[in-house]
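Milestone 3.1: sequence recovery, worked example.
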């Protein structure tokens, strides 16, 4: 069965990302604060002026439409200036994780065929080494923060080169080339057109009610598609104010929310865990927060309930992936009939199906109840063109009739709301039974001695795989491995029992908040 969004379709604007976000500013918008890092405010007027000047500087340096420029900068006003300047020049931006090693950076620079590379001073040793591997000359490495080097962002902006006249087709020209997280496989360049991103901005604007009066926390990284399009592009499109943080540090995060009276929080489940469980949260005034939207990984209902007990705002959960630009589902505002544990309903202009993992047949509806589990397939104007230079991976992900295989196992409720069961590739096979790690993690997070947890498959000669839990102990609480195992045993089916428990100081996660299970499996 094909499920269609219950929202009315929206008209997709025809312009490119720069035109739709900054090219449409009115006189009333210009002197409003677009971005602040808590110390320095950048108005919409200045953001556009600096982006235009940077676009001119890029064109003067030979950058042309279709060229790729790498951007490895933490969340900051400088990121936005560089990003929109790249797009204004008609070029494509490939964003890099600020924690990448030389090898990882070089691989992406080479794979994307980047012509220039924008980074920050603390990352220069990595940047120069990676640029050498990718044959990017030193003068093409641009420093985004304060620097006395000639190739600094500020210096290029000050040269005030004329804005280039470029013509691109938004439906085919690549705006962004982010790389998939690689948490369950090799990272691949995801080809996102201007139309893909603009479409998802228009789609997301219906369920996500960011307004010009909102101050939006931007701690989830802009180099990830969630931060780039759902947080940065959408907020600026709606003329809100972005409050940026270069990395997540709980005391600084809470202080910034309090000082800047943040109204809209975008978070991932690891931040939800901290906000729900850490005692320091009670020391701050968070009453300005009216809305919390969590994404990047499933949020369990129990954790969502605990979060709302600490911060009485409205909680939304969204689902997306890089290949979807990224949002396809979110819980509707003001609708208490849909469980906190649901990722919600399809955003406008989205269709989805749920298919049996073994047969590929559609999972039948269950009137008045939840369907059986199956893989979710999504179709819409926000689906990527494909993976850069990787036709086999593209063909394995997008069907000939345009359905994108998400790799996520879901169930559909009576209102066509969707519940994520787990990732297809992360399911643990215990004696032939499928064991979803997310279910065990959600259960373990309700234990008072557990601050954070990840469950992975551990090889076992008899069972094939067994569930192994890595647990970060809650401050001031304690429990032994045996106690944890016994506690889980009494609350779950026999084949889902935890068989091993290890205590560690932190759970490895990507910048987007996804558990790096492969790193934990390496400890096995």
């Amino acid at each position: 069965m094909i499920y269609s969004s219950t929202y009315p379709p929206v008209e997709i604007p025809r312009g490119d990302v720069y035109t739709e976000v900054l090219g449409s500013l009115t006189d009333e918008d210009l002197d409003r604060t677009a971005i602040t890092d808590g110390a320095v405010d950048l108005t919409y007027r200045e953001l556009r002026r600096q982006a235009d000047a940077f676009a001119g500087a890029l064109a003067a340096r030979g950058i042309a439409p279709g060229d790729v420029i790498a951007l490895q900068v933490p969340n900051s006003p400088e990121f936005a200036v560089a990003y929109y300047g790249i797009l204004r020049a008609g070029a494509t931006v490939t964003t890099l994780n600020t924690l990448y090693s030389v090898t990882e950076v070089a691989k992406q620079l080479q794979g994307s065929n980047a012509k220039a590379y924008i980074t920050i001073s603390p990352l220069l040793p990595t940047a120069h080494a990676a640029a050498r591997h990718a044959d990017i000359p030193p003068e093409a490495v641009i420093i985004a923060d304060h620097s006395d080097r000639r190739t600094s962002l500020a210096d290029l902006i000050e040269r005030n080169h004329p804005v280039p006249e470029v013509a691109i087709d938004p439906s085919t020209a690549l705006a962004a080339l982010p790389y998939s997280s690689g948490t369950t496989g090799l990272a691949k360049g995801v080809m996102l057109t201007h139309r893909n991103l603009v479409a998802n901005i228009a789609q997301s604007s219906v369920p996500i009610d960011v307004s010009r009066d909102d101050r939006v926390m931007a701690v989830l990284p802009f180099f990830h598609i969630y931060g780039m399009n759902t947080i940065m592009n959408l907020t600026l499109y709606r003329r809100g104010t972005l409050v940026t943080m270069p990395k997540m540090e709980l005391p600084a995060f809470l202080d910034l929310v309090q000082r800047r009276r943040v109204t809209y929080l975008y978070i991932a489940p690891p931040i939800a865990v901290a906000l729900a469980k850490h005692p320091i949260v009670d020391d701050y005034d968070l009453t300005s927060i009216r809305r919390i939207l969590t994404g990047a990984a499933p949020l369990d209902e129990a954790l969502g309930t605990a979060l709302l007990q600490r911060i009485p705002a409205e909680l939304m959960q969204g689902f997306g992936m890089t290949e979807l630009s990224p949002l396809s589902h979110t819980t509707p505002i003001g609708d208490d009939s849909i469980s906190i544990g649901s990722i919600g309903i399809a955003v406008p202009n989205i269709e989805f199906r749920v298919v049996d993992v073994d047969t590929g047949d559609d999972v039948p509806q269950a009137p008045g109840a939840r369907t059986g589990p199956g893989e979710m397939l999504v179709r819409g104007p926000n689906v990527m063109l494909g993976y850069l230079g990787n036709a086999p991976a593209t063909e394995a992900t997008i069907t000939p009739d345009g359905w994108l295989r998400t790799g996520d196992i879901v169930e559909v409720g009576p209102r066509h709301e969707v519940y994520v069961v787990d990732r297809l590739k992360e399911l643990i096979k215990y004696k032939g039974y499928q064991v979803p790690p997310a279910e065990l993690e959600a259960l373990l997070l309700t234990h008072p001695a557990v601050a954070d947890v990840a469950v992975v498959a551990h090889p076992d000669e008899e069972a094939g795989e067994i569930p192994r839990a890595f647990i970060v102990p809650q401050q001031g609480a304690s429990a032994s491995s045996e106690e944890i195992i016994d506690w889980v045993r009494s609350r779950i089916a026999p084949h889902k029992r935890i068989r091993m428990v290890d205590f560690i100081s932190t759970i490895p996660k990507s910048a987007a908040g996804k558990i790096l299970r492969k790193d934990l499996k390496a400890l096995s």
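The chain has a mean pLDDT of 91. The radius of gyration is 23 Å.
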